TrEMBL record:
InterPro entries, A to Z: AraC_E-bd, Cass2, Reg_factor_effector_dom_sf
Protein's name in the database: AraC family transcriptional regulator
SUPFAM superfamilies: Probable bacterial effector-binding domain
Domain AraC effector-binding: 1-157
Highest taxon in the source lineage: Bacteria
Length: 157
């Protein structure tokens, strides 16, 4: 699996954070969180958006998930928000290109985490308090665009 090693600078953000269970995931909570954030900010000038995963439990498959944007993003409609810090450091950066749907996202995550946990090419660093985070930058063209790219970064030692 292709990846690149990158140095990521700490990013201060604000957004929405929820505890995700299998039931909440199936009910579309993550999508609802993204829609709330996008409808509440000046999306066209926001810059990068992030999806941050923490506290993943292998047994229950539950985790904490945040959708967030840079601290300087303009808010158009108030919402209940939380300050979030994405820790700086070394990360393995994986890219996914194509139309996004629940199945393609699940496959991408499964492939990345299978590779990182058993591939032996990188050593994950979970001591930073983060399992991974997604970046949606200028390469992201929307969920239905086959040319759209988003990134998944995993902290490494």
């Amino acid at each position: 699996m292709k990846f690149e090693n990158v140095e990521f600078k700490e990013q201060k953000c604000f957004g929405i954070e929820e505890h995700i269970t299998a039931k909440k995931k199936k009910e579309g909570l993550i999508n609802t969180m993204w829609m709330t954030l996008i409808e509440s900010i000046d999306y066209k000038t926001a810059g990068d958006l992030y999806g941050v995963s923490r506290n993943f439990d292998m047994t229950t498959q539950e985790f904490d998930y945040s959708v967030c944007t840079g601290i300087d993003t303009v808010i158009l409609k108030e919402f209940t928000k939380k300050e979030i810090t994405i820790p700086g450091g070394k990360y393995a950066k994986f890219a996914s290109k194509g139309i996004m749907n629940a199945e393609s996202i699940e496959k991408f995550y499964t492939d990345v985490f299978t590779f990182t946990m058993v591939g032996g090419e990188i050593t994950p660093d979970m001591e930073r308090g983060i399992n991974s985070f997604e970046i949606y930058d200028e390469s992201y063209l929307g969920i239905e665009n086959p040319e759209s790219v988003y990134y998944l970064l995993v902290p490494i030692k």
